[in-house]
Design brief:
It is built from 12 helices and 11 strands. It is of the alpha+beta class and 335 residues long. The protein folds into 2 domains: 148 residues, no CATH class; 165 residues, Nucleotide cyclase, GGDEF domain (Alpha-Beta Plaits). The strands form 3 sheets. It has a 7-stranded mixed beta sheet, with helices on both faces. Strands 5-6 form a two-stranded antiparallel ribbon. The protein has a two-stranded antiparallel sheet with strand order 9-10. Strand 5 and strand 6 form a beta hairpin. It is globular. The N and C termini lie far apart (77 Å).
Length: 335
């Protein structure tokens, strides 16, 4: 008799364990009851649920627990304390939902894959999941605390230097020919390429005291406060992409220098738009920077010993009719 299915891991077990360890057991409340216990209108509860990225369930469907009640109460308390205004609650909750949605999807797939492969060695899957989920939650809380400290330190340093609204360098880096690559590579090889790309970019940016704001498919958005460090980071990315002996793909980079609006973990404003446009017109294996950054770098390197700056032909892109890109390269070797 074929017993292969008997040892197969049932992913639905994860749902039971998640309810048990994360939400104190199976659902016992409807959304209407959650709203009543939290002291908010049903429409408010439904809106918060949608902001998190979930489709609204029927008002009388039992799909919630006391944990959901407490979450709404905490959100209301943040509003009362003035930490989050009623006007910014949608953005605040949406930012949380987007961030944790991606994280949860990746973690779940990793967890299911790992448990399926090691179920026989580690013991019954249910016991493994019961142990792993609290551990992941604990590590997640630790990472959040560390990032909170790092963010507070960056902001405090800017405030101390009276540069809270000062300019920064915004950069985009994307993989050249990603669409064609994705058609030719296996899913495993493509995942390995993207993972290596994101890891190297993150390491380079973080080592320069910068911040990886977000990844957008085959593209990474980052910021670096120091113009010289930003130039070196971008050049390192381009150079790694030109090295055929490493996995890092060929890339194009765009950098712009100026003020940005930082909001809910993202950055906005003309500087961000300009960096994006420069990336779109940059040639494969090259980088373009805006006029302001070029002037800053020229002042920092009057003798041209660190960088080679060259103004390129003006071009028109969406939002910029006479965009003046500058190319940035290493200086030529002198004989």
């Amino acid at each position: 008799m074929d017993t292969s299915d008997e040892s197969a891991f049932d992913p639905s077990l994860l749902i039971d364990v998640a309810h048990e360890f994360l939400f104190d057991g199976q659902p016992t409340l409807t959304q209407r009851e959650v709203a009543e216990r939290a002291g908010v209108d049903l429409d408010v509860a439904n809106d918060l649920w949608r902001y998190l990225g979930f489709s609204v369930v029927g008002d009388d469907n039992v799909a919630f627990s006391e944990t959901d009640v407490e979450a709404i109460k905490v959100t209301q308390r943040l509003t009362e304390l003035g930490i989050v205004s009623p006007e910014t609650i949608p953005q605040f909750v949406r930012a949380l939902g987007r961030s944790f949605s991606r994280l949860a999807d990746w973690q779940t797939r990793l967890l299911l894959s790992s448990i399926s492969e090691s179920a026989d060695e580690e013991g019954p899957p249910l016991e493994v999941i019961s142990e792993v989920i609290p551990m992941v939650e604990e590590v997640q809380a630790y990472v959040w605390r560390r990032h909170l400290l790092a963010a507070a330190s960056r902001i405090a340093m800017r405030t101390a230097a009276d540069e809270s609204s000062g300019p920064t360098v915004v950069g985009f880096v994307d993989i050249v020919g990603y669409t064609s690559r994705s058609r030719q590579m296996s899913a495993r090889d493509l995942a390995e390429l993207v993972e290596h790309f994101e890891r190297v970019v993150t390491e380079l940016v973080v080592d320069a005291a910068g911040v990886v704001v977000k990844t957008i498919g085959d593209e990474v958005l980052f910021t670096v406060d120091d113009p010289a460090d930003a130039a070196e980071v971008a050049l390192s990315m381009v150079e790694q992409g030109e090295d055929e002996d490493v996995l890092f793909p060929q890339v194009r980079v765009g950098l712009a220098h100026g003020p940005v609006l930082a909001r809910l973990g993202d950055v906005f404003g003309p500087t961000v738009n300009l960096a994006s446009r420069l990336t779109s017109v940059s040639r494969p294996g090259r980088m373009l920077i805006d006029h302001d950054l070029a002037m800053v770098l020229r002042e920092l390197d009057e003798d041209g010993e660190r960088w080679r700056l060259r103004r390129t032909r003006r071009t028109s892109v969406k939002g910029y009719e006479h965009l003046e890109p500058w190319s940035l390269k290493r200086p030529r070797e002198r004989s």
